[in-house]
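Inputs:
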Amino acid sequence: MNSRLLPAATAALLALSATSQDQIAVKAGKILTITGPVIENGVVLIQNGRIQKVGKAADIEIPWTAKVIDASDKVVLPTWVLAHSQGGQRGLNENMQNVPWLSVADAIDPGSVYFEDCLRNGVGTIHVLPGNQTLLGGSGMVVRPFGRTVEDMSVAGNTGIKMSLLASGGGRLQQIRKLRRALEDVREYMADFDRRKAEFAKEQAAGAIPADKKWTEEYDRTKKPAIDLLNKKTKGWLFVPSVAEVDEAMRLGQNLDLMFVLGQNIDEATAVLAKANKPVILDDVFEYFETDEETQKERKVCTAKLLADAGVPFALSLGLAGPTSYPWWQLGTCVRNGIDRRQALEALTTVPARLLGMQDQIGSIAEGKLGNLQILTGDPLQATSWVDTVVLEGQVVYERSKDPRLQYLFGDEQNKASKAAGPEKAAEKATEKPAEKAAPATGDKPAGTGEDDKKKNEAK
Amino acid sequence: MNYRSLARVAGRCVPVLFLCATFAAAQEKTTAYRGARILPAGAPPIEQGVLVIAGGKILAVGGSATPIPDGAVVVDCSGQTITPGLIDASFRGGAAANDQNEQSGEVTPQLRVQDSLDPEDKSFARARQSGVTAVQVMPGTRNVIGGLGCVVKTFGSDPAAMVLKEDSGLRLVMGAEPSMGNRAIRGGNVDSMYYRRPTTRMGVVWEARKAFYDAKEAMQMTLGGAPPTANPGREVLTRALQGKLTVFTTARSEQDIRTALRLATEFGYKTVLDEAQDAHFVVDELAQAKVTVLLGAPSATAVAGTAGSDGSDPRYATIGLLARRGVPFVITTGSNLAALDLVREAMFAVRAGLSPAQAIDAVTILPARLLGLDARIGSLAAGKDADFVLWSHDPLDPAATAVSVHIDGNSVLESR
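Outputs:
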C-alpha cells in the first residue's frame, strides 16, 4: 500500500503546508513523544506543518518570529490515530452487498459532529471505512477532522477495500460462501479478460486482425478495485465479527493483503491471530463479561490483554458514543487489565500509524513528522484530563476555551430560568458564537475559505 | 437430574459452604488494615490510615497512631486506598428482569421486590466485584406504581438474610414507559389479561392520581370512624401519604420531572427523583424543593428505558450543575443498560466537575442517608458494619481495580 498511499499523502501535505508557513513553538510541561523518552519542560518547534525540533527547553532557542503556545503546565502528545472508524459518514452501509467501487469520500460529512468530537478527544488522523454490513463495501480514506470539504480533510485516498464476514441474512456460512463467490467471480472475469486479450494477440499475429489495431478494452471499472485487491495492489480491511470467522479470515489472508478489524468476541482466537504476525484492530469494546456454560459464573474478558500476552500488536478503536468514545477510558481500560502503559499509548499512536503505512508521518513527536499535537490538561490516562488545544500540521484547529458544545454542556445557560433572568447574557452568547466558529478557519486557512464557509452554511 | 446439572449444583454449593466455613473463622479474628489512604466518606481523607475490624464491625478508624489490639491480624495496605463499600440506591439487577415487572395490574403498590430477589443473579457478583456492597433493589419501571423496594447487601445465599431494610421505597413511574406497547387488541376482549392500560402520559398520571386519591379518601374515612375494608395496596400508599415511606419517582424528561414534582405536592408525599436525566432543565425548582435526584449512569450518552422518548439530553455535565446549585443528589447506575460500574460513574462525575470527595460521598454516605441506613453503612466509623473496599490505588483513576471487597468483614471478592 505504501507505494500507492504515500505519494498521495505527500501531495496533500505539500498543498497544506503552503497554507501554514508560520512557525509554532509549543512550550510544554511534559512531552510524551511516544517513541522517545518523556521530556520534562520541553519545546516542540513546528515549521511548515512539520516538527522541526523537539527537546528540552534549555536546548532549543525559540525564534522570535514563532507563535508561542504556552503549555508549560500541560502535557503534550501526538494526536491519536484511528486505524479504523465508521464515524462521520452519512449512509455507511450500502444496501447492495458487493460494491467495491464505492468510496467513503462520497459518504463523509465534513459537518458531522463526529469530527468535532474527534478534535475534543485529541484524535488527529482517522481512517474512515465503510460499515461492517457489506461484503465488499468500497474503499476508505484517511482524513483529519478539520476542514470544510472532504478535499480539505483528505490526508490519503484509496486506502483499501472494506470487507466483512458479518453474517447478513443467510448466516455465517452463507456470508463466507458469498465472499468466496464474489472473489471467485472477479478471478473468473480476470481470466476471461486475459484469455480474450491473448486470443486477440494470437489472431493479430496470425494476420486475422490488422496489425495497426490496438487492444483497447480495459478492466470493468466496477471490478477494478477488487482486481487490485486480488493482485495485492490494494489492502483489504476485513471485519472479523467473532472467533468463529477467524479461520476463514486467516485463509483469506493467505492470498490477500488483509488487515483484520476484529469484533468483540475474539478472546479464544488470540493464538491463531498471533500466527498472522501483523497488528490487528480491536473493537471499541474490548472488556466484557462472558458466562461459563457449566458454572453459569461470569468471567471478565479483556481481549486487548489476551492479545498483548500472545504478542499480537493491536490498535485501539473508539466508540461513537458512551465511555469507549473517550481515549482516556480506552487507555485506562488497558492499564486496568494489566497492559503496560507504553503499549496502551502505542495502540492509539504508532501501531495504527504503521497499519496505515504512515509511520514516518504520524504517531509520535519526532523531527520530520507532521506537526500533529494535542495539549492536555493532565495525564492522558486520567478521567480529569481535558484536551485543551489540538494542532494539526502546524495549525491550531481546536481550543477548548472556544468550544461551544462544552460551553453548553458545562455552562449554566441551558437552564431556562436563568436564561430568562439574564437576557444580556444570552445576547452576549449569541454574538460570541459565530465568531468562535469562524476563528480557526479565518486565522489559519486564508485560501478559499470564504466560499467554503458559504457552502457549509448552506449545508447546515 | 443428569450428571451435568449435578455437577453444576455441586459447583454452586461447595464454594458457598467453603466460604461460610472460612467466614465464621475470619469474622472472629480482629484484623487491622494499615498503611492505606483511607477515604472514610463524609470526613477528610486519612493518609497512612489504620482500619480495625472485629466481629463484622468497624472497631476503629484513624491515622497511623491508632492503636492496634494485641493479637490482631495486620494487613499491610501501603499504596492502596480504602473506601466504604459503595451503595447503589437504584440498581437494575437483583432479580431476573421479567421478575421485576408484574403484568397483572398497572398499580401494584403491595408487591415487594423481596419476593423476586435472586441471590445468584449475576448482577450481584458484578456489583461485589466492583466494590458495591449494598444496593436498593426496586420493582421494574413498566408499571405506574410498581411496588416496594428493599436494600440488600450484595453477598449471601438467603434473600432474607441479605436484606438490610425492607420496604425502603415505593416505585412510581412517570412518562412513556408504563404505557409503552400498551394498546387495545384489535377485535379482542377488553377483559383480556393482555389488554393493558394506560396508553398515554395522561393515562399514566391518572392511574397514579386515582390510586393516591383512593388512599387519601380511605384515610379520611378512617378518621371519620368508619374503617374501610382491608386493602394491602392502599395501605402502602397510605404510609407514603403519612410520610412514612419515600416515593422513588422515575421521571426522566423535563416534562415528567415537573409532573412528578406536581403530583408529590398535590398529595403531600415525600419523593425523590430516580433517573432524572433532564434534571438540568429543572435545576432551580429542584434546589428550591430540596428534592434529591438519583442520577442514573452519568457516563451514559443514551437515555435509559424507552429509547429516546423519555429524556432528551442526557449528559454527564448535569451532575456538576446539580452540585453547584445545591440540589441534593446521589450517583446510581439506574436502569441504564449502558451503565458502568458504580465507581466509574463516580469517576465520570468527577470529570464533570465534582470534587473527588463529593463523588465518593455520592456513592457511599449520601445514598446511605437517603435510604435511612447511615447509622450502619456508608462511611467508615467505629461501630458501623465492616463493609469496605481496598482499591489498588485512587478508585477514581480509570486504571484502578478493587483488590478486595469486604461485607461484614468478610472478603467477598472471588479470585480471578
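Remarks. Chain A touches chain B at residues 289, 291, 294-300, 321-323, 325, 328-329, 331-333, 335-336, 381-384, 409-410, 412, 414-418 (CB under 8 Å). The two ends of chain A are 36 Å apart (CA to CA).
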